[in-house]
Amino acid sequence: MIGEKPEWLRVRPPRGDIYEYMRQEILTHNINTVCSSSQCPNKGTCWSHGHAAFMLMGTKCTRQCGFCAIDSGRPDVIDIEEPEAIAEVVKKLELNHCILTSVTRDDLPDHGANHFASTVEAIRRISHATIELLIPDMGGESEPLREIIYSNPHIIGHNLEVVKRLQPIARDPRASYEVSLSTLAMIKEIDPMMATKSSIMLGMGETLDEVRDAMYDLRGVNVDILYIGQYLRPRGGKIPVSSYVTPSEFKELEEEAYAIGFGQVVSGPLVRSSYYTGESNQSCY
Q: 186-208: per-residue pLDDT in tens?
């Protein structure tokens, strides 16, 4: 049985004027963030530095992955005013870089592609912020991806989440290792210049060789940016933590990832998909 969290996974409680300002603005505009919905351990740190990841299309996901803290069930009605509301918050907070993600919307014919595109376009009209998207697999279809790409974000990410062997355990049956790789490949096929990104969680029982295989598979579809972090079981999570990966092991994987051709790698215990992305990804777009 795994013991207590090691020292390197302990985080300070949120505090500071910037954090409070961010919290109030997000509440005032009734904006959803993945920071809160996913129980991210970096929420205090990121908000204290003026960073946030906005979550589109409600707080209910049509899929149910075992590692995820986001609620699943009947999805919310799409708020057609959300793109403009998020754009206003990006402008008011004077963000230089913003991250947009969403719940998975298998109930929508376009899987939410138009809403992503509308939000990107709304931000571009009133802000010079760089825009990063973290998208679902869009049903493995190319047309939703095309609409998103043509809205002209700076980075499009889609997470592989876990190594191949653990996919049936960790992810909803409608998701798969192959579809995720295909999604990332299609982005590059549609726009070879689009920066792409993916993330892998460790600590669910994978081996380092399996992680290396996943890294090679991601480079095989020309992914530019790789994030690697520690899985932490959320409240209500189904999958227990199998191991705590040490900072030195994360550093070793970072060095190996650079060696096989990733343009940017962020690897560490508290790393998440949206962790300090503005600073770390500038060289890739």
A: 999 999 999 999 999 999 999 99
